Amino acid sequence: MQAEYRAKPDSWANGCVRRHLRAPFSFPVKFHHLKAGMSWTSTGMSLDLSEGGFGALVNGNLRAGETLEVDLPLSVNNLQLIAIVRYSSDSGCGLEFLGLTPEERSQIVDLTTHRGLARTPRLAKLME
Predict the structure, then answer these.
(1) Is the pTM of this model over 0.85?
(2) What is the pLDDT of residue 61?
(3) Is there a domain that residue 92 lies in?
(4) 112 is in which domain, residue-wise?
């Protein structure tokens, strides 16, 4: 009998509940920063993924409220998305996607639900 993965929305200590289910998912991430006419790139590793955003460990500092372009290698082609940093600490950060197209949202939903497990070996291996 195969186990079915059913994520539950996370509850925070203050009683709030996330809007989207999160799935553990590890992939390299590139962050493109633009500030005051300067641009630079930093890197990190995701911890989880949902259609609303993702958690990550980052090489460098991200500031809450900072808006970034994010390269996510989720499909044959990398997704290039816009995200805002919702929190940042020494132990990681949380980013929320902004302005996803229906196609981008669909790709992410497929990866974070049971039907995406078979097509995504990295996620399937994590869920074993």
Answers:
(1) no
(2) 82
(3) yes
(4) 23-127
